[in-house]
Design brief:
Radius of gyration: 22 Å
Pfam family, one: SIS
Keywords: DNA-binding, Transcription, Transcription regulation
Protein name: MurR/RpiR family transcriptional regulator
CATH class of the largest domain: Alpha Beta
Organism: Thermomonas beijingensis
CATH superfamily of the largest domain: Glucose-6-phosphate isomerase like protein, domain 1
Shape: globular
CATH architecture of the largest domain: 3-Layer(aba) Sandwich
Helix content: 55-70%
CATH topology of the largest domain: Rossmann fold
Structural class: alpha/beta
Strand order of the largest sheet: 2-1-3-4-5
Strand content: 5-15%
InterPro entries: Homeodomain-like_sf, HTH_RpiR, RpiR-like, RpiR-like_SIS, SIS_dom, SIS_dom_sf, WH-like_DNA-bd_sf
Number of helices: 13
Order of helices and strands: HHHHHHHEHEHEHEHEHH
């Protein structure tokens, strides 16, 4: 069962500025929240008490007491590590950092799972599975995931056209048909070139699927379907790792959905893997 803390993190990117301030305060002071009334929380943030109440209700709680109880339960669960043994005293700092990273990755993956329920993955998988051609694009670090997914889709027998250059992809999209799909990767969804590609695809009457953070952004606004990532940490070097980990887990779920729902794809993947093994054996001989 997802904890209130995970829900806060997963919804943060969709919040207004005031809501993010409330969420960040709660996340940073979760252990102390039980001592705060809604008015004290409002005073600490310099906002109205009604803003706190509306925030709680927007997240699906009846009011502040329900949110505070859920946060307290989440803190207790986290302190007990859900039954996972605590690291022994004297554990080297490197090992402790590794454990913390694993924990934060797990939280990011759970938050991302929350905002991409099974129905969403099924719908996206059906769109990709029925596409004539899937055009896949990503720039910079986003291309790492775009390239890997393009390979996986090809292994399933799904025709893909991958490119990290907007100009080349524009040329490719000129031949797009109404049953084709543009799958665009962009963490923040702000690259004008990708927005232009999405508009081009819509003009061709094809479909657009975007993969971005769980935030309001220009690219996401142009999408017919979206895959979203929730990954937050005050340490920028850690937040980047969380984003890529959560995104990879999301794409793995999508791949499995595509694989399991079509016998022809399963057979195609098996044939491809056997062929690759044979090629590797020849190289080693």
């Amino acid at each position: 069962m997802s904890t209130a803390l995970v829900i806060l993190r997963s919804e943060r990117d969709r919040m207004s500025a005031i809501e993010r301030r409330i969420a960040d305060f709660i996340l940073e002071n979760a252990h102390l929240l039980r001592d705060y009334s809604s008015q004290q929380l409002a005073n600490a943030l310099g906002i109205s008490q009604s803003s706190v109440v509306k925030f709680c209700q927007k997240l699906g709680f009846k009011g502040y007491p329900d949110l505070k109880l859920a946060i307290s339960e989440a803190v207790i669960r986290a302190d007990s590590n859900g039954g996972t043994p605590l690291l022994p005293e004297g554990t080297p700092a490197v090992a402790a950092q590794g454990y913390d990273l694993w924990l934060r990755k797990s939280e990011a993956e759970e938050a991302t799972r929350l905002i991409n329920p099974p129905g969403t993955l099924t719908a996206v998988a059906e769109t990709l599975g029925h596409a004539g051609t899937v055009f896949i694009v990503g720039m910079g670090e986003d291309d790492l995931h775009a390239r890997a997914l393009a390979l996986r889709l090809a292994q399933l027998g799904i025709l893909t056209v991958h490119n990290f250059d907007a100009a080349h992809m524009t040329a490719s999209l000129s031949a797009a048909k109404p049953n084709d799909v543009l799958l665009a990767f962009s963490e923040h969804g702000l690259q004008p070139a990708l927005c232009q590609l999405a508009q081009h695809m819509r003009a061709q009457r094809g479909k657009v699927i975007t993969v971005t953070r769980h935030s309001a952004n220009a690219l996401r606004a142009l999408a017919d379907q979206t895959l979203l990532v929730a990954a937050h940490d005050e340490r920028p070097q850690i937040e980047r790792l969380l984003y890529h980990s959560a995104l990879q887990h999301l794409l793995d779920r999508l791949f499995i959905r595509l694989y399991e729902t079509d016998a022809a794809r399963r057979a195609r993947l098996q044939e491809t893997l056997e062929r690759q093994k044979g090629t590797e054996a020849i190289k080693c001989a």
